[in-house]
Sequence to fold (276 residues):
Amino acid sequence: MQQAGQLLKERREQRGLSMRDLSREVRITTPVLEALERGWSDRLPEAAYLGAMLAQLERHLELAPDSLQGALPTTTNSKLRGKTTGNSRFTIGSIDIVSTWQGSVVYGVLMLGTLMALNQQQRHLTQRNSQQLQPIAPTAADLQISNRTQGSEPGLPGLRPLEDALRRPLVQWLPPTSATSNDPQTIASEDRQALGLLQLKLSQPSTIRFSSAGGDRSELKGSQGQLTLQLLAPISLNLQPPPQPEDQVLWNGQPQQPISDQPGRYRLPQSDPRSP
Fold:
C-alpha cells in the first residue's frame, strides 16, 4: 500500500497537479486521495468503491494496469486479479448498481418491468369492472319515494333546508313569546319587551342611531340600502336626514310612523291608538 501511494504521489507531481486539481479531474474527494498517498487504510472507502477509484486513477494518470491495486486489501486484490485473468464469470450479483453502467441498465430494466406490471394490473381490474365508472343505480326505496312525491311537493320536507328558510317570513325567525301570568297587564308588559325585527330601507346615505331595552347602543353613518336587526323592544330610533317617501321603517313587517313634529325620530313599537 505504501508503494502504491508513493507511485500515485510521484505521478501526480510529475504532471504538476495539486491534490485538489486531481480531485476535480477524476471526481474523487481530496481526503481519499490523501489517504491513498499516505497509506491511511482506515480512511479509505469500501473495497468495492476503492477498486473502481484505483482503476480510474490508473487510466487518468496513464499508469500501468494494476499498478495501484496494492492499496486494496489482500483478499480483494486477489479477487480483482482473478477477474482480470478470466477465472470468474459475470453474474448479476457482481454488478455495482451505484457506479457502473451495468448497474444503471439493471435498474432501468427493473423500473420498466414494474411499470408494465402495474399497467397490466389496471387493465385487468378495468376488464372485471372493479373500477365503477357509472352512476349508482337507484334502489327500490328511492323509486318509491320518487313516486310518492310526484304531483305533490317538489321534494320531501327538510331535504332542502335553505330553500325552506328563504320562503319563511322574517317574523317567523323570532323566538316565541310566552306569558308567565294570566294578568293582562303582565302579558302586555311582556309583549312590549319582546324581541322583534327592525327593517330599514333607505334610498340615501343616512346616519342611524338606536338604543334598545336589551342594552344595544349603536350609531351607523353613511348607511344605505336594506338593514335588518333583531332587537329587544322598546327601541328609540333616530334617522338623519329623515327618510324619504319611498323609504321604509318596519317593525315585525309593519310600517312605522315618526314621532309627531319630530321627523326621523321613532319609538318602537308604536302604541296602538285603539288600545286603552
In short: Residues 66 and 169 are 98 Å apart (CA to CA). The first strand starts at residue 195 and ends at 212.
